[in-house]
Specification:
The protein is built from 10 helices and 8 strands. The chain has helices at 19-28, 45-55, 86-112, 118-123, 133-142, 149-155, 172-181, 198-210, 225-238, 276-281; strands spanning 3-5, 31-36, 58-69, 72-79, 170-171, 185-188, 215-220, 241-245. The structure holds adenosine monophosphate and manganese (II) ion (3 copies).
């Protein structure tokens, strides 16, 4: 069975492996088609593609765009974009820039909770390009404030907890315009992770579909098997293709190991159903 993994992170954003190491690891785990989808960045794609070419695995350009929708944060994965498309490049640069301003506010909130030095602490883990809550989380674990990634987000950095700040990301329509302008496919990332009741979830799917969005992650490292069923039904109802991705962030920082993701339910039309990458991998 061909292993397709269309959601993963490298050190360009908040993963632990460099793009090259990530591709090597994917190949070792038997992944045949891989997308690198760093948060709000495309900087790892060239290196990853180069390594994939050497190892004979099929590589797909990707990114995971942070979006504000109804005052909530959701993630939209873009796949198969032209990584040079100027509006996409500029839009992502704007989001990365805003992350530094947000990081200062996160550190100020943590200061109020008597946790000092977190900006420098988080930056020590971050690439020069992006600072994320994951980097703050690693600093908090280092400082003994929590024992692992799961527990740190229960105590800090989330709504109502120290270190939480609101932030304005891209608008949904902007993210889709950037992806579509670059010739790519837009995918709702891990819908099971959003705190949306069924009414809001339906509104999100309706709006996404109306804006020309094409797919939704049905099989995700952060979905339960019940959620595979729930989102494959929603995909069918809205005429969306189904995607599959581990959301791998590196050893010990992932919901599921690379290569161990469940297969796509047979009732779904995979987003890759007509891709040459898959024909070439098979
Ligand atoms: P940001 O985009 O800066 O808000 O950071 C979000 C990142 O933090 C996600 O992409 C995950 O890698 C990580 N994250 C958020 N919530 C959790 C959680 N509950 N458990 C583990 N990692 C999380
Ligand atoms: Mn992440
Ligand atoms: Mn995400
Ligand atoms: Mn992700």
């Amino acid at each position: 069975m061909l292993k397709v993994d269309l959601h993963s992170h490298s050190t360009v954003s908040d993963g632990l492996l460099s793009p090259r190491q990530l591709v090597r690891y994917a190949a070792e785990q038997g992944v045949g088609v891989l997308a690198l989808t760093d948060h709000d960045d495309l900087a790892g794609l060239a290196e990853a593609r180069d390594e994939a070419g050497k190892l004979g695995i099929q590589f797909v350009n990707g990114t995971e765009i942070s979006v504000s929708w109804r005052r909530r944060t959701i993630h939209i994965v873009g796949l198969r974009m032209d990584a040079e498309h100027p509006p996409l490049v500029a839009g992502l640069a704007r989001l990365r820039e805003s992350r530094f301003e947000r990081a200062r506010r996160i550190a100020a909130e943590l200061d109020k909770a008597n946790i000092h030095g977190s900006l420098e602490g988080a930056m020590a883990y971050a690439s020069e390009r992006i600072i994320s809550r994951s980097h703050f989380a690693r600093y908090l674990i280092d400082e003994g404030q929590a024992k692992d990634m799961r527990s740190v987000f229960k105590k800090f950095l989330t709504k109502g907890k120290p270190g939480y700040v609101e932030h304005v990301w891209a608008e949904l329509h902007e993210a889709l315009e950037w992806i579509h302008g670059a010739g790519g496919i837009a995918v709702i990332a891990h819908p099971g992770r959003y705190d949306l009741g069924s009414t809001l979830m339906n509104e999100l799917f309706t709006e996404f579909k109306d804006l020309g969005g094409q797919a939704v992650e049905v099989v995700s490292g952060s979905h339960s098997s019940d959620e595979f069923g729930r989102f494959s039904d929603l995909a069918r109802r809205y005429g969306l293709l189904a995607s599959r991705g581990s959301d791998y962030h590196g050893p010990g920082h992932s919901y599921v190991d690379m290569g161990r993701l469940a297969q796509m339910p047979a009732t779904c039309t995979p987003v890759w159903h007509d891709w040459r990458e898959v024909l070439e991998a098979a």
